[in-house]
Design brief:
With 193 residues, this protein is mainly beta. It is built from 2 helices and 10 strands.
Amino acid sequence: MNAKIIIFALSLLSFFAQASNEKAYQPTEADYSEGEKWVWKYKGVTPSNEIRAQGTDTKQIVSENGALSMLTAKGSTLLKVLTKPNNRKTSRYYWPLYVGKTWVFEEHWESEDGTKGSTIQNAKVVSFKDEKVEAGTYKAYTIGYTGKITNSRGYSADTQDIHLYAPTLKTFIKLTQRQKGYLYVEELIEYTN
């Protein structure tokens, strides 16, 4: 075998070995700074091209009475509450994240109209690489979720979600959700620090 080919092959193996050893841990309060801001655009479309959801969503880190909080459209929440260690094996993100990790995401919820439901999905971290979104290019974990959503009104649908989680931004930079032909996409369009 040619020496250049061997060196190239070893370089590739080294790159993939390093990439697979990367781990992302749950962000702590100290990882955030005042003024940090994320803006996403979102759009949900039915199989008949009817737009069911469209707009922007913003989160910003603000100081309130000397403590950092995350401000959203619903109000503000102290960072020390949001960053409380979460070791639940059924969480959306089961820390630490690394390529090849699998778990079951399970969420039980109630909507404003009183409908109760459950989302149960098998999750797997499939890659960690540069991902380009409108806000820029970031190293991100691609996490695939497949499962089912059900509710107390008899609704049931298979689901397929993909989250691109960027550790340096402490959040997802893009998510794609599919259920019964409905497609919802949310993408980061602005990040300031």
